[in-house]
Write the structure tokens for this entry.
Amino acid sequence: MKLKEFTKGIIRQNPVLVLVIGLCPTLAITTRVENAIGMAAALAFVLISSNLLISAMRNFIPREVRIPAYIVVIASFVTTIEFIIHGSSPAIYQQLGIFLPLITVNCIVLGRAEAFASKRPMKDTLLDTAGMSVGFAVIIFAISAIREFFGTGHIVIFGQEVVPKILASPAGGMILPAGAFLTMGALLAILKRLKVL
Amino acid sequence: MAENLIGIVISAVLINNIVLTKFLGLCSFFGISTKLRNSMMMGLAVIFVMVCSSILTWIIYYSVLVPCGVQYLRIVVFILVIAAFVQLVEMIINKYLPDIYTAFGIYLPLITVNCTILAVALINVDVEAYSFIGSTVNALATGFGYLLAILIMAGIRTRIDLYEQPESLRGMPIAFIIAAILALAFQGFSGMGG
């Protein structure tokens, strides 16, 4: 029965599709599948670890200063992941650019801290944030796959050509900012039409 | 002063518009742009906080973090400065300007987690390494870019609500498609100034 804390983040309360939060990285870094994987991993790390800590401290943080306290916790974990990614894969660090430090102000992290982790025990928080991370990962993976495929004609992940070049003349516009908005709008409309949301 | 201030302004408002080209502040861009008045208020509040916080963070970065060699703490320090500043402004306005507080009140706390503010603070010291004047001008121009984008968006959305739309496009999907067309329009500026 606890499983629904996990599964609700994937479709029914998907952070990007239903709550429409955490849009900046969703649209900005989804030009390539590779970046989306890096972003999803970084966000999952920050979301899960910071919310676990907030949940553990929920009885010690005074209500009046809770937001600054949460932000400090989140910013510390973001600094940690920044070091890790910078050290382990400089290429992805370059690609994510300013969006890596900006996980600090990602509405998903603070939103879950405020709405869930600050009231629930650590076990529920772990399930909730893991579900949200999966929900976020699925969406940015889908959007980046659509954009990379139509924008460049093929999908390359870490040097491996996963989807071969099928399109002879790719639509470069899908890589541009307009393509991101268009993909997101079309995705929302299709899901709404199919009554998934 | 090697910086070209006019270049910074044109770049921040049009070529690299923070919302439509750099994808920042999207949550508030889509969340608030349903009404023109609210968008105006939010835009003005963003300009104010952005300019003040970029001045504060620039001074702190170069007078505290750099001499101590702890630039990696910038994220934690900047977000704390911004949060504290927003809280302070909220209290001052609440005490001395209650009229403005009722108009701006709910938008101020939202600004703390508006990623444009932290982004501009980081761009000023990290990505572009602007001088003090350059940073301030950049913050002001970026704020205007945000105001411009959200006003255009709100104007279009209030009109489009009056027309018949396919059921599955109503609400958010159409907003994203409008944003796509706007982003294409702003793409036209990309050749300017090189």
